[in-house]
């Protein structure tokens, strides 16, 4: 059994979404998923937020991840395009629970949307859709 404390749900989600073909197409190309609000845009930003549970930190833990679809800084990204990218990212995260376990990789057992997401521009006016998902996972099995 692996170390639950070493499980990084943000890294897991970014890696999965970065390689997701449908999301890459929806965003207009690769290199548009990460933990920062940096070009190129549109992009998906994933950050871990408070919440979740890890009873006894023994085997599984549930982490809350904020998922954001961010538009161009000049506010030129069409809102429907951003909404589609956001919905595609949420759908892709749900697919994580259906993946076959691979030795050496964390195993996601459940993904649940905690909020359906909504339009909430950044304070700068930059276009943004935002929502939160709960990801339940356990460390890799040797």
Shape: globular
The Cα radius of gyration reads 15 Å
| CATH fold category name | STM4215-like
Domain count, please report it. 1
- SS elements, strand count: 6
CATH class: Alpha Beta
Order of helices and strands: HHEEEHEEE
* CATH architecture tag: 2-Layer Sandwich
What structural category characterises the helix and strand content?
alpha+beta
Sheet with the most strands?
Answer: 6 strands, mixed
Q: How many angstroms does the end-to-end distance come to?
A: 7 Å
Helical proportion, percent range: 10-25%
- Mean of pLDDT: 90
Q: Unreliable segments (pLDDT under 50, ≥5 consecutive)?
A: none
Number of helices: 3
- The proportion of residues in beta strands is 25-35%
Protein name: DUF3168 domain-containing protein
List descriptors.
single chain; 142 residues; alpha+beta; STM4215-like; six-stranded mixed β-sheet; 3 helices; globular; DUF3168 domain-containing protein
Walkthrough of the structure:
It comes from Kitasatospora xanthocidica. The protein has 142 residues and is an alpha+beta fold. It has a single domain, classed as 2-Layer Sandwich (STM4215-like). It is built from three helices and six strands. Strands 1, 2, 3, 4, 5 and 6 form a six-stranded mixed β-sheet that branches. The mean pLDDT is 90.
Task: Draw up the topology in text.
Blueprint: H1 9-18, H2 21-27, E1 33-34, E2 43-53, E3 61-70, H3 79-95, E4 107-113, E5 118-119, E6 128-138
Parallel strand pairs: 1-2
Antiparallel strand pairs: 2-3, 3-6, 4-6, 5-6
Helix pairs in contact: 2-3
């Amino acid at each position: 059994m692996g170390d639950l404390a070493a499980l990084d749900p943000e890294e897991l989600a970014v890696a999965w979404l970065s390689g997701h073909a449908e999301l890459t197409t929806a965003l207009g190309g690769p290199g548009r998923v990460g933990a920062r609000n940096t070009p190129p845009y549109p992009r998906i930003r994933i950050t871990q937020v408070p919440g979740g549970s890890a009873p006894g930190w023994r085997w599984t833990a549930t982490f809350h991840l904020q998922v954001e679809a961010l538009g161009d800084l000049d506010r030129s990204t069409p809102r429907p395009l951003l909404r589609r990218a956001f919905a595609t990212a949420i759908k892709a995260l749900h697919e994580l629970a259906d993946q076959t376990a691979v030795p050496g990789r964390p195993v996601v057992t459940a993904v649940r949307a905690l909020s359906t997401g909504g339009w909430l521009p950044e304070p700068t006016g930059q276009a943004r859709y935002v929502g939160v998902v709960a990801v339940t996972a356990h460390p890799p099995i040797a």
